[in-house]
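hiii, so i know i said id send this last week but things got crazy w the move. better late than never?? heres the sequnce for the chain we talked about at the cafe, plus the structure i predicted for it. fair warning i was half asleep when i ran it
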Amino acid sequence: MFGYIIIAALILLILVIAIRTAAFKPKKEIPHEEKEAVFDKDAAVRNLQELIRLRTVSYYDKEKEDDAEFQKLIAMLPRLYPNVFAKCTFDRLPDRALLFKWEGEKHDEPSVMMAHYDVVPVEEENWEKPPFEGIIENGVLWGRGSLDTKVTFNAVLFAADTLIKSGYIPKQDMYFAFSGGEEVNGNGAVNIVNWFIENGIKPQLVVDEGGAVVEGVFPGVTKPCGLIGIAEKGMMNATFSVKSQGGHASAPKPHTPIGVLSRACTRLENKPFKMHLTTPAALMFDTLGRHSNLAYRIIFANLWLFKPVLDMLAKSSGGEMNALLRTTVAFTQAGGSSAPNVIPPSAFMVANMRLNPDDSVQTAIDYLKKTVNDDTIEISVKNEMEPSPVSKTDCEAWEKVKNAVSDTWKGCIVSPYLMVQCSDSRHYRDLSDHVYRFSAMDLTSEERATIHGNNERIRLTTLHKAVEFYLRLMQSC
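okay and structure toks below
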């Protein structure tokens, strides 16, 4: 009798899995009016070329910066975008923050479109083309900032300039907010947010850099995916340090400071943080999983049963999928003795951590101490940032961004996701729950690898699409 019960239960389980998988189909899209996107493509390219030619490189050491290059860029903007300066108010705030206001018919639901015009340093000797000459070859524009993020800086202003020239008036006030120090965690975006607070302005839509239109990032999905970040992970740098009496390396104690730290490193890597299926990840799985192949649809349609399988796959493979599901710990720096035959009187290692939205700085510290379980190791934290709140997706603001993506990149699957990097949009955490992180580009894995790396470049067709996206988005705001 007991055997029959087991068989019946298995049959019932299989039926439930099959029914849920069969019903796990792509959702029907809500029809909407597509906005026009007509503009001078050659002029958009020329403008980005000019922006790239200015060495607006930001450094944590301010003495290394060439402020004249930043000032040249700001000074050229009225020439590049004359209609914007004729119609919009323009304020320069501290720390190279730039804020434009395009007044709309109404003023109660303003939108904010963000970018930054500073770039990271380059190793010019490792580039195939000069990084600050704006060279175009075979339909590709080379240069630092071509992807991160002078392309969107240009796209926002060029789209606005085009619409203003045509006589378009937005339904609501529109702000263009740009930072000149995002790459070094500058206060430009903070100063803009403070300006909004002081003036009683509560944005109903904020768009900053983040996801993009990409392929091959979700298991079993072959179509391009337009990923819009609805939250971003927090961050902190944890330093693990050990002190000792030092001494000659010829007579070491059983465990040297380096050995103690190595054991702590191994413990944390072998016992990663607990998986959290947060709202951004759950929505992503629910959206993209419906377009996946049968094997993965079975898993994502039945996470109530297969969540441990997903956890195991993420832990074993690491990478982007794992980063979506848990707080990650990446050991990046270490130091010890200055000589090979001397036991270090002190040693340290540093882990860069990205915090899952269900974790916090304090819960992460608690987990580190519990897992390391060694009172001889001191753990200190700096550069900590809490995870952002999760923005809404069941609202008009989300639909505006989603529609602009789907209309610009036909056939892509638009999905929420969790951004694992940091952006200036984190400063809007208490100002709006409609903050969306999307870099208006379709990028290959090779192109994504050039961001902050060598040979950063952008296809001209990608540049054009960025302008198209903002033209459509602005016409819906």
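btw The mean pLDDT is 95. thought thatd interest u
miss u guys!!
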